[in-house]
Amino acid sequence: MNSQYFYFVVILLCFLSCKQEKSQLEIAKDQLPGTYFELKKDNIKLFLPVYFQEFSKESYKELIDMLPDSKEKTIEKNRFNYLKFSKGNTYYFRDIASSTLINVKMTKFMDFSKKESSYLLGILSNSCSKYASILQANCKKITAGYSGNIKTKVFKVVYELSKKDTYKAYNTIYLVTSNHKTFSINIFSNNNKDYNKFIEKIIVK
User: What pLDDT does residue 133 have?
Assistant: First the structure.
């Protein structure tokens, strides 16, 4: 293995499995159907399931504007407005068929460990609450966990966003530090799917 590359080894996220849909967990990591996307500004290769497309901030806004007026359009517009003001390079990916949005945001380098887990959870829970208030919804933590080795640290948390009986969605967050870089992967979806095996295939140069 080239020392320039840091691969997310299989054991890194094995204990992070939670009450999520397991359909992809039975597939071997090297057989996952997906595509690598290069985050060129930050020398990261992100592996995502098939059917995901990358959008610039401008093209994603245009995509939302093209949606017919509906609850989905209002949610997407509020979500986009929340994300676009984030500091650091931001990348947008969306599965058009399922309306699943993945947002990758670079942040200031932070070499965290397991003992900082409660602190990280507090920060991310506060962020989820602020985001939920924009949607006029509630934010509830489903699960959270940490895993790390000498090269890579990952903190994962899954939230349920709900509004009475009219709306339910999930926000899965992976906070990753590897090769002196820190970034978050935010997954917004109507389904609580497990993306661990895809996260394991990320390459940080």
Answer: 85
Residue type, 8: F
- pLDDT, tens digit, for every residue of 50-67? 999 999 888 888 888 887
**How far is the C-alpha of 12 from the C-alpha of 153, rounded, in Å?**
8
Q: Note the pLDDT tens digit of each residue in 107-162.
A: 999 999 999 999 999 999 998 898 888 778 899 999 999 999 888 999 999 999 99
Question: What's the length of the chain?
Answer: 205
Helices (H) and strands (E) in the chain, counts: 4, 11
CA angle 111, 184, 65 (to 5 degrees): 160
Q: How many Å apart are CA 89 and CA 139, to the nearest integer? A: 26
For 114, phi then psi, to 5°, come to -60, -35
Alpha helices in 67-148 (DSSP H): 71-84, 117-134
Instruction: Name every residue whose Cβ is closer than 8 Å to that of residue 77 and which is 6 or more positions away in sequence.
Output: 64
CA distance 108 to 110: 6
